[in-house]
Specification:
The protein is an alpha+beta fold. 26% of the residues lie in helices and 23% in strands. It is built from seven helices and 13 strands. The strands form four sheets. The chain has a five-stranded mixed sheet, with no helix packed on it. The protein has a four-stranded mixed sheet with strand order 4-1-13-10, with no helix packed on it. The chain has a two-stranded antiparallel ribbon with strand order 5-6.
Amino acid sequence: MRDFDEFTITRAVIDRFADTPDPRLRQVMTSLVRHLHDFVRDVDLSFAEWQQAIAFLTRTGQMCDAHRQEFILLSDTLGVSMLVDAINHRMPEGATETTVLGPFYVKEAPELPNGADIAGLLEGTPLLVTGSVASAGGGMLAGATVDVWHADEDGAYDVQQLDALGGLAGRARFRTDAEGRFHFWTIMPAWYPIPDDGPVGDMLKAAARHPNRPAHVHFMIAAEGHETLITHVFAADSPWLDSDAVFGVKNSLIAEFAAHPAGPAPDGRRMERPFRHLAYDFGLKPVRTRD
């Protein structure tokens, strides 16, 4: 077949994928072509706009490096990340809701004992985080790994200021004790804008959208026999809860970061200045097993 026009070309491209050996890849590519072509026809895309789109995606790729993933930011700000998350995490009762991973997760976070202070050189209001990990509908989970990371009081992550900090800070990995509990000290994170000095930021500005995220702490929790949980817990007194730039806020993930005066803390430490306390219990979804 040849001599395609704006209507016949879609069928021709789809037919070229007819012999794709992997049936799932064939399904995905067929649907992608159909929807992409329909989009181009729907907006009556001009050649100049097509060139701008190619340039935008090229710049998005060029912004990616070991510490920044501009394509994840693009996916996040278009709501695609949370849509994929929602489709893949239909949670049973008792399981903590999920949200996006975000671009600042680091696999090499140090493993520390419960009660450790992970703030490093970060300065700010002390924050005690206490929590537990259980199986949804079941008992407490001992030995679960709890990865945590968060921004500082200025809204910046450690990987954005490694030279100044001399290494990682505001992140670590813990293991739950025999009762499924964990706790650590750090500082209170602030709300912050996602990186907006690249093409994603240009897109937000052009659409008159703000780049801000409410204050939160990230958690990635894993235990044998359960799906790994990736989520945030958001501060109830933070701005931007109703307009998170990446659409990640869920009511069940909003919690009080309770303010306390100087004095004894819940873990027995005596604090010489006011501090905040986040207490949150997590539930993991058991992995289905086939009979």
